[in-house]
Amino acid sequence: MEKNYPLQLLSTWRIGGPAEAVYWPETVEDLSSVWRRAQEAEIPVRLIGRGSNVLFPDEGLPGITLVTTSLRGISWGDHEVRVEAGYTLARLAQEAGERGWSGLEFARGIPGSVGGAIMMNAGAHGDEMASCILSITALWADGSIKKLERTDFEFAYRFCSLRGQAWVLEAQLKFSPGERDRILQAMKENLTKRTANQPLEEPNAGSVFRNPPGDSAGRLIEAAGWKGKCIGGAKVSEKHANFIVNTGKAMSKDVLALIEAIVLDVQLKYGITLQTEVESILTGNRGVKAKEDIEEHKSIR
């Protein structure tokens, strides 16, 4: 366990103050044990993956931050795979493609972990995680671990009904047989598009806003004139307007201020309220809470 660990090292945005304690459990049982003990001792505890869709606070986080990146167990079956939450999604997609298994072509360029991708129903190129899930094993707030079949929870656009209630520890995914060369070529093309259209060379957390029905968040933000605009060290990417990049010294408050300004401006100009896709972890008097607007459909004000 590391004390006073820089949260910026756990985020693709490279933003965040010191975490009081960070621990990388190597087994699901270890993770569950630490979680339960923290709960019993009334110590704030939270679970994160590769930090590719999260904004940490500048003041840091109290309690224990559990990082799932050491949970990388995997077992390949007959066009099925059982994989732990910390496994890299892009690596899983590549390995499935090498086997001639189709289903994760869209995920080859997504930088997050399997667990995080399921919790936000990550997707690209018209496909999403929901299409290949058979079952999941999840950690619940009381420290218990339960297996759920696909029919036990719901998915929608960038939404999983488990969010805020449980955290994915392991998943069973299904694939379809396909032509290996065609699958790998599709992945290559997706990666080429991603490199051409997204600011991968700068620290970011992927798409900041969800696309509103029938429109594109990036198009709206660009049309409103936000490309290249900055608040502090946070800048709207000149390559893709739905990305906010860290120019070197961005703070959480800079990103939040930029998000708030964009939401307000787009609302005033086009009557559309953009919804955030990224998760902002905030500190409060009662520990740590996640500020999410997915179920409530609220804008950040």
TrEMBL record:
GO terms for biological process: cell division; cell wall organization; peptidoglycan biosynthetic process; regulation of cell shape. Gene3D superfamilies: 3.30.465.10, UDP-N-acetylenolpyruvoylglucosamine reductase, C-terminal domain, Uridine Diphospho-n-acetylenolpyruvylglucosamine Reductase, domain 2. Pathway: Cell wall biogenesis; peptidoglycan biosynthesis. It is an enzyme of class 1 (oxidoreductase). InterPro entries: FAD-bd_PCMH, FAD-bd_PCMH-like_sf, FAD-bd_PCMH_sub1, FAD-bd_PCMH_sub2, MurB, MurB_C, MurB_C_sf, Oxid_FAD_bind_N. It catalyses: UDP-N-acetyl-alpha-D-muramate + NADP(+) = UDP-N-acetyl-3-O-(1-carboxyvinyl)-alpha-D-glucosamine + NADPH + H(+). The active site is at residues 158, 207, 277. It comes from the Bacteria. The keyword Flavoprotein applies. One of its GO terms (cellular component) is cytosol. Its EC number is 1.3.1.98. Keywords: Cell cycle, Cell division, Cell shape, Cell wall biogenesis/degradation, Cytoplasm, FAD, Flavoprotein, NADP, Oxidoreductase, Peptidoglycan synthesis. Belongs to the MurB family. This is UDP-N-acetylenolpyruvoylglucosamine reductase. It comes from Desulfosporosinus youngiae DSM 17734. The gene is murB.
